[in-house]
Amino acid sequence: MDQKTRDDLLTLFQSKLNEAMRFYLETCTRCGTCTEACHAYASMGQVKYIAAYRHEIIRRIYKKYFKGRGKVWPSVGEAKELNEMALEELYEAAWSCTGCRRCMVYCPFGVDTQMLMSIAKLLLVGASAEPEILTLLADTSIEKGKSLELYKEGFLAGLKRLEEEVVKGWQMEAGETVIPVDVEGADLLYVALAGAHSIVPAAVVFNAARENWTLSFFEAVNFGAFVGDPTRTKLILDRIINEATRLKVKEVCICECGTAYRVMQQLAGRRPFKVSSITDVQARYIREGRIKLSRSTFKGSITYHDPCQMARNAGVIDAPRFILRHLTDDFREMTDDIRYNWCCGGGGGLVALGEDTLDFRMKSSRIKTEQVQETGAQILATACENCHTQLENLNDHYKMGVKVRFLSSMVADALVA
Length: 417
Ligand code: SF4
Ligand code: SF4
Known about the structure:
53% of the residues lie in helices and 8% in strands. The chain is of the alpha/beta class.
């Protein structure tokens, strides 16, 4: 690695060194409490997947370049040179971590591995050593924000094809708009993912609840956040913030995408609208008597996987349980304390990398399948696209014999007129 590249990467490293990050870098006592916390270590037993081992790589680079003792006496200061080999180790550490923060719950000092891995991901982006496909997808999202007019016609034609399915799910009255788009003054802007599965059930429930809503032109997914690039993350986020501001909506409702929800909730800054997850919104409709659900639509017991980005990392815990109590008399928790729920192993961009990560995702999440199977449930519900894909992959791989369902589509299927 030449000096200029190293200097540029160290400038990126420095940009991450706020007070919280310095605390995480300087506090770990290597007590080992987090050893069993990571699903990858618990499933595979390899030291490199222990949370503290992952951050030690970052910490040693920090000691070498940002701490006095490491600069003058590297061997005693446990300092590590930032070179090609270090980048390979950072890749291994960061791209096998889902950012689930289960280890953080165990750590007596609350050391945040997800934050420390964000340094690793940023250095990899700076060195053009990140998974390139995620950067390309992020750039496509940003481009769509800049040239919306080019995409509008195709998007609206695609929606027309979905309208019949929405009417089948909920009888509309003549003259009503089935999937409203670009409605200024709507109360709620719904930000979906690409695909009917994210739009149709949500539209059915919005119409049943007589919501004054409008659908976003943009997909909720934030590939900038997956790849760990703060600039791209912000540009992708801004498309939705600008649309919500232009339409003067009161609420932005994010579909079942854990990262999209957490990013909008925690990184959007001051904004003139409320941010909700679709799970929260559907629970509210039930509470307000705007929709009613049947408890007899689904046969068999139901368990629920809390997406880490929704529950542990953003506090959406009660709403899914409230909904599930209206869907079944046989709901089975996976764990007594949601904070310690096992990650499904698909987050942090791993599912987005598809087949490339499939083998690791299956091996590193064996512990999750045991947790699901111990419930004895026949239906496995969740509220995140990544988790749903990963759980379906686990279901096939380990022959769990469950039916994996999106919670929002269960709500749509169980609507009572
Ligand atoms: S954040 Fe999750 S995946 Fe990453 S080290 Fe901690 S427990 Fe493992
Ligand atoms: S539990 Fe916290 S302090 Fe202990 S080794 Fe893990 S990260 Fe370090």
